[in-house]
Target: Polysaccharide deacetylase family protein
Amino acid sequence: MSFRRKGILSFSLVIGIITIVLLLLVSCLPSADYGTEEEADAAAPYIITASDEHQELSALQVDKPLAEAEVESVTVPVVVPSVVPEAVSNAVPGAEPEQDSNEGTTLFLPLSEDKNPVPPSVTTNTYVPVVPQKNTGKTSSKVSIPVLNYHSVAIDPGNIVVISPDKLEEQMAYLHDHGYTPLSLEAFIRLLEGDTSEKAPEKPILLTFDDGYIDNYEQAMPILAKYGFPATLFVSPGMTEQDGYLNWEQIKKMQAGGWDIQPHGMSHPHLPKLTADEQAYEIVEARKLIEEHLGTKADIFCYPYGERNKTTLKLLKQHGFRYAFTIDQGFATNEQSPFLLKRLFVNGEEDLQAFESKLLMRK
Ligand SMILES: [Zn+2]
Model:
């Protein structure tokens, strides 16, 4: 029985020791827990974010300059170079279409809008200024001149290609009163080519008359003369001397009165329907006859009906023509192909307000 007692005693001793140890442990643990919980709320967030921020900052400061250094000198962060080459590469193909497409303006307009994206790039990084300066310098050299496209000047209600003498008078008065300067063809070309030897007028404009109707001599010339306005006549020599059309005497007088005379095809043909040889005849013979009759250069072409194809363009280049006018609507600019200059058709039926808004739209 003594063994049993001893056993019970030693067992209860062991249990007593264990409970004491446990009590000690338990009394220690809670105090440690409280401490960590409170500190965790307060300190832990700081520790985490601070280290993250440090990582981000160091990534920005170290990685970016490295990347820049690899790309090019010290200039600009990644954003800007990607913007600028796009603006330039858009401009270049648009500037030299040399095909019979009408897509000129849609390409050019984004170019001028590309000037605007510059400020955002300035705000997104601090190093910028260099590139935007280059950009604005380039685009500021754009030349854009309205070229009005008239035909017959007579009274023919309902015919949009014919404008009444009164309306023409009203429009010339408008141009005069609003400070427009109608140009000779050569002055127009000088401006378009960026020749700054003469001071450019504030509001240059070119007046063109197509086909060589006799009323251009009888009606238009006296009205323009009243204001001292020069103009350009695109004539089809194969139609001169016919009823309703100018004869060479009249054309000479118009030239003496400040009109430039240039070719519009021999017989006002649909050029794309002709063979290359036929086109060449229409283009070259018209020029030759004008030069023979008037003794002046006639190397600015105007497409009859505005129509042309690749052969037409090739022939014009081949025969040394300098420019060609279309009837594609818009201002003529130095960003258009020289053989695809745009004009503004003057609808004989429209009122002065429509005429004015045509001149005020920026193209
Ligand atoms: Zn015509």
In short: Confidence is low (pLDDT under 50) at residues 28-139.
